[in-house]
Amino acid sequence: MSAESPSDGASPQARFGAEMRRLREAARLSQSALASRLGCTQTQVSRIEQALRTPQPEQAEILDRLFGLSDKEYFVGLYKRITSNPGGPRWFMGWLDEIEPRATVLRSWDPLLVPGLLQTEAYARYLLAREPRVTPQVVDERLQARLQRRSILDRSDPPLLLVLIDEGVLRRLIGGPDVMHEQLGYLLEVAERSNVTVQIVDPGCVTGLIGAFMIAELSGGEPSAIHADSAAEGLVSATPELVSSIWNRYESIRSWAYPEHVSLNMIKEVMAQWI
User: Fold this and answer.
1) Which of 76, 192, 215, 260 has the fewest beta carbons under 10 Å from its own?
2) May I ask which residue range the UniProt record assigns to the signal sequence (predicted)?
3) Given a cut of 90, is residue 155 above it in pLDDT?
4) 225-228 vs 235-237, strand pairing mode
């Protein structure tokens, strides 16, 4: 999908970025020049055009005025579609829509929970239902979006998935013993796939306590991208320096991981304790 001609199936975020770039270039504006109009940096304009950053509502209004689209509210409409997506927080939508589906390799680390991509319905529902001020409808919508993510593993050309999980995750009670028993069983089931590797990390590793993250290697020579969680708002980025920093952290954490066969035996042992 080119920025100049987004496909009909492009996400609202991808279409917003592609149209912003197309109209900017047609008006012979540099990214820096547009950034000054939008009140942001050239890097932020670049990330919006690549669907790696969610625009602000006032930026959508400025773009409509700048390109004579105020009567149609074109960019405002796209912004509303972006922010109405029930799949998760705004910052995460670029990852879900544009990066994860195109990844050839996904590397994941989580010090606290089973990664969302490998969560069972019961495990995920328990977590989502305990988000502050969330309604049952939103829980159901986000749950379906989270479970839908797993479909990338069922493709004819699934990505290579390399998962690192802190040992404490296996013993952290989420939803009750039955939920944990099912969740660890699902981990073992997924780990049987040739494209999935699950390794448990020794709890003595402190390098990864800063938080969960994923690294995506993209096809077609595109740069890798990362997403990192935080208590407030996470981050999606393809900035080389940041990708390199997260990659180095991943490798440091991996050096603390038990071999795959040892890790799977650990999961089996803890799973038996949850009966």
Assistant:
1) 192
2) none
3) no
4) antiparallel
Residues 220/275, Cβ–Cβ less than 8 Å: no
- Within 10 angstroms of residue 64's Cβ, the number of other Cβ atoms is 20
Q: Which two three-digit tokens encode residue 217?
A: 């290697």
DSSP class of residue 208?
G
pLDDT band (50, 70, 90) for residue 85: low
Q: What is the set of domains in the chain, with CATH numbers?
A: 12-83 (1.10.260.40), 90-273 (3.30.870)
Q: How far apart are CA 237 and CA 243, in angstroms?
A: 7
Given a cut of 80, whether residue 172 has pLDDT beyond it is yes
Which residue bears the tokens 């912004």?
79
Structure tokens at 65: 């005025």
Rounded CA-CA distance 248/101 in Å is 24
Token pair, residue 128, equals: 């989502």
Q: Which token pair is 126?
A: 């328990």
Going by C-alpha positions, the residue among 258, 269, 156, 255 that lies closest to residue 198 is 258
Extract the tokens encoding 116. 């969302």
Radius of gyration of the chain (CA): 20
Rounded distance between C-alpha atoms, residue 85 and residue 98, angstroms: 14
Pairing of the two strands 196-201 and 213-218: unpaired
